[in-house]
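Model it.
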Amino acid sequence: LHLRVTAMETEYCPPQDPLVILHEDAEVLLVDKPAGLLSVPGKGPHLADCLIARVQAVFPDALLVHRLDRDTSGVMIFALTPYAQRHLGLQFEKRMTRKTYVARVWGVPEQKSGTIDLPLIVDWPNRPLQMVCHDTGKTAQTDWRLLKDEGETARVRLSPRTGRSHQLRVHMLSLGHPILGDPFYASGPALDYPRMMLHSEELRFNHPQGGHSTKVRAKAPF
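Modeled.
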C-alpha cells in the first residue's frame, strides 16, 4: 500500500479544464473543482498547479477557506476579503456549514440510511492514509443515505458532521463499501474506474455580508 501511495504522489497530471464559477459576489467566490486537481500546492514545483493558483490568476484577492481532496470534485468556496475569510473560517470550525456529497460505492448497503460514528487518525507509516482508531482518533461522524441500487454498485448521499481528512472515504470503507476509483482505499474491481466517484454537490453557509443562509450546488458529473 505504501508503494502505491508513493507512486500516486509522483504522477500528477491535473486536468486542464477551464475554471467553472458557480457564484461570485464582493465577498465570496464558489467554483466547481475538477477531480485530479490539488486544492493547494504540494511540495515541489511539479505539484505547484492547483485550484487556488488558478483562482488567484483570475481573482488575485482570493483567499483559502477549506480544501477538497485532490481526487474529489465539486463545490469549493474562496473568500475575496480577509473579513470573509475569518467569517467563513469560523463557520467551518464551528461546524455551521452544511456539506452534501454524492458518491458511487462498491456493493449495495443493506440499510437505506445510517450514521457512521468512527474516530479517525493518520496511519503514520502510510500517511497520508487515515484509519479508524478508538484510542487516539478524533471524533468523526457521517450521515449517509442510499440514493440508487445499481446492482454491483450503489449511489449514496453523504453528509459529514465533522471535517476530518479522508473522512468520507474511510467511513465508506469501514462499511465495506469503498468509493469507486479511490486510489488509496479501493482495491480490485472497485479501483478500476476513471476517477474517484466522490463529488461535493452542495455547500450551505451563512453569507459574510448580512449572514443570510446561502446554498450553492454543482451537479455530479458521474
